[in-house]
Amino acid sequence: MKEINILDKTFRELITEQEINSRIDEIAKQINSDLAGHDVVFLGILNGAFLFAADLYRRIKLESRISFIKLASYEGTSSSGSIRELIGWNEDIRNKTVVVVEDIVDTGNTLERVFGELVIRKASGIKIATMLYKPDAYKKDIFLDYVGFRIPNDFVVGYGLDYDGFGRNLPSVYALIK
Ligand code: 5GP
Ligand code: MG
């Protein structure tokens, strides 16, 4: 069992680099076939999805574009809780089929925020591609079209995902040892 330390925590390998690569092959093949003939824009959600977006997109054969946005969360001054603004839009997605590319879907809050914005901006179709999915944590009903791996409700790092900023460069996915 491969174990690594990041800062004060120990993690154990959960998904290997080979497993990730062959799963992305399958997902890309599926997207290439499902979205043939569509006007497609891939939309990566930074920071976490940057590796998955790159690895997926290099396997895409559709004439398409890719763009990235980021969610800036900050605490509001009122008691309304955290406000999440979407920054970095520079792509007109009106009448386009948008493939949202996520590192992980956990509660689904991020996804819901992005999905709502795509509806407002009048995307003609919305597909969701996520490398990881925690079914036990997911609280929304947005359908996830392309899921790399369903994982238990444990904290994971690697392959774009961080622990306090570290670990994004790990080529496989590691789960926190409790
Ligand atoms: P949500 O709860 O909105 O679905 O997920 C929000 C974000 O939390 C994800 O995009 C990801 O950046 C982060 N996140 C959720 N679960 C994990 C995890 O297990 N590890 C890490 N590093 N980030 C996570
Ligand atoms: Mg994310």
Give a description of the structure.
This protein is an alpha/beta fold and 178 residues long. The protein is built from 3 helices and 10 strands; from the N terminus they run E-E-H-E-H-E-E-E-H-E-E-E-E. It has a 6-stranded mixed beta sheet, sandwiched between helices. Helix 3 (109-120) links the parallel strand 6 (97-105) and strand 7 (125-133). The relative contact order is 0.22. The structure holds guanosine-5'-monophosphate and magnesium ion. The site of magnesium ion has 7 residues, from strand 6.
What is the structure about, briefly put?
The chain is α/β, with parallel strands linked by helices.
Main attributes of the structure:
178 residues, alpha/beta, six-stranded mixed beta sheet, four-stranded antiparallel beta sheet, 3 helices, 10 strands, 37% strand, globular, binds guanosine-5'-monophosphate, binds magnesium ion
Record the SSE blueprint.
Layout: E1 3-6, E2 9-15, H1 17-34, E3 40-46, H2 50-57, E4 64-75, E5 82-87, E6 97-105, H3 109-120, E7 125-133, E8 146-150, E9 156-157, E10 173-176
Parallel strand pairs: 3-4, 3-6, 6-7, 7-8
Antiparallel strand pairs: 1-2, 2-10, 4-5, 9-10
Helix pairs in contact: 1-2
Residues 48, 103-111, 155-157, 161-162 line the site of guanosine-5'-monophosphate.
Beta-strand content estimate = 35-45%
Bound molecules: guanosine-5'-monophosphate, magnesium ion
**Rg for CA atoms:** 16 Å
Report the end-to-end length measured between terminal Cα atoms: 15 Å
Number of strands: 10
Biggest sheet details: 6 strands, mixed
Q: How many H/I helices?
A: 3
Query: Overall 3D geometry?
Result: globular
Helix content: 10-25%
Could you give the order of the helices and strands? EEHEHEEEHEEEE
The largest beta-sheet arranges its strands as: 5-4-3-6-7-8
Which structural class is indicated by helix and strand composition?
Answer: alpha/beta
Mean pLDDT: 94
> Unreliable stretches, pLDDT < 50, 5 or more residues?
76-81
